[in-house]
């Protein structure tokens, strides 16, 4: 079950050597955060590891995190090398470059601009908030980063440690936190965004994610766990027994993996569509198969009941009708007994937004559930927009203003 997270030196060299150095650089064009793999690969090939690390962090303050968990639908999918054999493993190369920089105590980032005297608040220290804070601190603002939780990372903290060790989030943060004036306040929820203006902040970025799990509206839902409770404190549910996971996305896949890791004998995912329709990356697909997760596809859970032996999942089979929509197949309802836990992982939604010209929302609370790299892009754009609004200057490049050294 345990996979190596980082490439070794030989693997890194091999991957660097596979880059075709193509003229069109599709990897750069498709990266939501604006990373330039062709540039950092060429720098690494020339032995300029620190410049390569700098190239990554200038575009993406969570460069190593993304190196480990970016889905294969961005740079990997566009890589020209795939036309020859298979894509360069760009994310893993990125993670390795930053690992080298991390091992060098001399490698540091610092702010390129002097403090401008303006204080701004960023609410939420998930990837969108961290990126917005990095952009604004890089441009000379004093940033207070408010986080309700006891640690930074937001939804990234629900990603199992085997895929993303929390220390990698902290390591990226270590690079970024010193680039300017960023005051991180953990365990400090902001109840009222408007009150921040009374506290002297001239602008606010709200990067508050999607804190509400979506329910299924079925009988017996109260017997189910929601994925946030399950993934935030997996140790509470570490038991033997059978576990059912309802949902077919990346979050559901992490729940299944966690259940298996926690000692469940039998883990079964109930998915309304086909395995091939599931919105998961190649790596997640592989993980499910490696862990021997049972996939019950084209199946809708329609009720959950309870008896002395545990929970009973009632299901009905589904099919695509002629319009391509899913519908239940009549007379296919069955009962599946003996589950210890049933975990719902079918989505989440944001709270309502306040309308105010100096409050800019960023990340999943705007776009809906996305990816870390897209949340970073959204946070950077929000930082850019707030800077333009407050300074009256139009920014020329979507970069974090940094210097090395
Ligand atoms: C289980 C799971 C697995 C995932 N796997 C991947 C993956 O492999 N690859 C990938 O790219 N993406 C993955 N994602 C998605 C990714 O984590 C999210 O898209 C991303 O974290 C969203 O970033 P965000 O900053 O918009 O919101 P969040 O990460 O949700 O951060 C919001 C932050 O705001 C804080 N907050 C909220 N309200 C307040 C308040 N009033 N005051 C102070 N703080 C507040 C919250 O505590 C939280 O820390 C996964 C998500 C989950 C749940």
The CATH superfamily label of the largest domain reads: FAD/NAD(P)-binding domain
**Number of DSSP-assigned strands:** 18
User: What number of domains?
Assistant: 3
Main sheet specs? 5 strands, parallel
- Strand order across the largest sheet: 4-3-2-5-17
N-C termini distance:
40 Å
Helix content: 25-40%
CATH architecture of the largest domain: 3-Layer(bba) Sandwich
CATH topology of the largest domain: FAD/NAD(P)-binding domain
Low-confidence regions:
none
Instruction: Kindly report the average pLDDT value.
Output: 94
Bound compounds: flavin-adenine dinucleotide
The radius of gyration is 23 Å
Shape: globular
Structural class: alpha/beta
Strand content: 15-25%
CATH class of the largest domain: Alpha Beta
Q: Count of helices? A: 15
Please tell me about this protein's structure.
By secondary structure, this protein is an alpha/beta fold. It folds into three domains: 9-102, Alpha-helical ferredoxin (Fumarate Reductase Iron-sulfur Protein, Chain B, domain 2); 113-211 and 350-404, FAD/NAD(P)-binding domain, CATH 3.50.50.60; 213-347, FAD/NAD(P)-binding domain (3-Layer(bba) Sandwich), CATH 3.50.50. The protein is 34% helix and 20% strand. It has helices spanning 9-18, 26-30, 37-45, 49-59, 63-69, 75-78, 90-102, 127-138, 166-176, 195-198, 227-232, 250-261, 282-290, 364-367, 372-391; strands spanning 109-111, 119-123, 142-146, 181-185, 203-206, 212-213, 225-226, 242-246, 266-270, 294-296, 299-307, 310-320, 326-328, 334-339, 341-344, 348-349, 359-361, 402-404. α5 packs antiparallel against α7 (90-102) and α12 (250-261) runs parallel beside α13 (282-290). The longest helix is centred in the C-terminal third of the chain and has 20 residues, at 372-391. The two termini are 40 Å apart. Bound molecules: flavin-adenine dinucleotide. Flavin-adenine dinucleotide is lined by residues 69-71, 123-129, 146-149, 154-156, 158-159, 189-190, 207-209, 211, 231, 250-251, 254, 363-364, 369-373, 375.
